[in-house]
Fold:
Amino acid sequence: MPQQRENPFIYTDSNKRYYTYAYYLKRTYGEKCAKIPLDIGCTCPNIDGRCGRGGCIYCSVRGSGDFAAAGGGVTAQIAAARAALTEKWKTAKIIPYFQAHSNTYGDVQTLAAAYREALCAEGVCGMHIATRADCLSPEILRVLCDLAEKTVLTVELGLQTACDETAARIGRGHTFADFVSGYTALRRASDRIRVGVHLINGLPGETPEMMIESARAVAALAPDLVKIHELYVLRGTRLAALYLAGDYRPMDEDAFIAVTAEQLAHLPPQTVIGRLTGDGDARDLLAPYHKKGKIALLNGIDRRLVDADLWQGKFYRP
Structure:
């Protein structure tokens, strides 16, 4: 698709008004790469009692690792994912994604061994590690620094909201100041480590203004990557109990589209947008049900950006 002459956003080759992950992959590796989710059996400090029990109110049993191959070590999970993706992805390049729970939390030697095993897989061109900002000990930071010398490493930090009141309500187990402390330590450890931040829209008690303020707070940190998605209600979670009791209502589609477009306008233009929607396991998903589907939701964000004359970085001031 040719670039629109009226599109003011320059980091695109597809008329998008934000820096898509697909565009990043093309610029970095020359093509799309298959991102393979992994579950290495990690837990979290707000699950095992260090700062809480039971995890965040929305967290599934597998801690966002619902789409990782069940069972087996790193090599077996990568092999299973390759087999499943053969028809969809016509590429030999893969990016292992340590996704389930907090993947820098646990025995450092065990974690380092898992990273090394993934790095040895055929076709690996980068690596993503999802974790929390309060799970970055000096020991694990040294491991990450070494890893970043061997591959394109992105460490994704779950923030979800910059509002401490909301964080307490969802059982996050840390404050925004705690997050910034861990984020800063990671930045100082190595300039070769790419840092990502996760945000969730539609958390209980949050207004659109609060969600936009979270985006502003993240923008001030100038992360390399940001992921945004709507809050999913999954069966068996504490959030599901609130939803079924009528004490929580998900954002509707139009509200999510409007807020997300506004958030993009506050983020730095050079920040890669890793996603703007998520995927809840359909077997356990209670809400939200998007009437028109995920692609239509993304198209709605595109339309909102054009109609409101917005683009990523329009309101960003370093």
Q: What stands out?
A: The mean pLDDT is 92. Residues 145 and 186 are 9 Å apart (CA to CA). The radius of gyration is 19 Å.
